[in-house]
Amino acid sequence: MTRALQHNESFCFAPALPVTGDALSNRIRLLMKLRTSGINDTRVLSAMENTPRELFVEEAFREHAYDDTALPIASGQTISQPSIVAWMSWALDVHPRMRVLEIGTGSGYQAAILARMCRRLYTIERHRDLLAQAEERFRTLKLHNIVTKRGDGSKGWKEAAPYERIIVTAAATEVPKALLDQLAPGGIMVIPIGASVADQSLFRIRKQEDGTITSETLMNVRFVPLVSE
Questions:
Q1: Do the Cβ atoms of 129 and 66 come closer than 8 Å?
Q2: Are the C-beta atoms of residues 166 and 183 closer than 8 Å to each other?
Q3: How far is 134 from 171, CA to CA, in rounded Å?
Q4: Which of 10, 25, 75, 80 does the annotation list as catalytic?
Q5: Is 75 a catalytic residue?
Q6: Residue 225, in any domain of the structure
Q7: What domain range includes position 146?
Q8: Over the stretch 2-60, which tens digit does the pLDDT of each residue have?
Q9: Rounded-to-integer distance, Cα 183 and Cα 162, Å
Q10: Total structural domains in the chain?
């Protein structure tokens, strides 16, 4: 099933939800940590500043929403640590008029960050419950440029291709051919690759205008595996 939360070509986002007290100070502390770690892209920092991570974590872990750590969510999945979200968003080099495909909606946090940076965000999740929860969060934040789909992310979303940017939030053993085919010439894909959790690296894949594929290794990471249905 494919759902567009709402079509609104002006893409005017509502401000972040009101936040006070400890959550506010913790959010500011996290942003300062990201800056000192080398994330100086104002688009990424602004998107993260205006996206309340506490909305995307389970209630039992809400006090840790701004710790720089991954946290468990439903269906045996995780919400990535904020620094990894920031680095992946930076590596993707998203611009306002771009169409972006995300593989693995999860809690919706990474999607919410990217939706504030691009024209339209397409996101696929195989777990029905996770997708429903993420959609509710997108509505709460009035992110109207996100289109969702339940399905096998390794197959991509052919009907809406090509995409200028593709991000994969689960580790594959190799880059899925379907995703390479759906990446536009001149496009970038950011994807974790590794046969085991202990042997994963984050790669930035570029498709040149002539179709040539190049890649570079960015850092070691730990992600849940990308599962094909």
A1: no
A2: yes
A3: 20
A4: 80
A5: no
A6: no
A7: 2-220
A8: 555 533 333 333 344 445 457 788 999 999 999 999 999 999 999 999 999 999 999 99
A9: 6
A10: 1
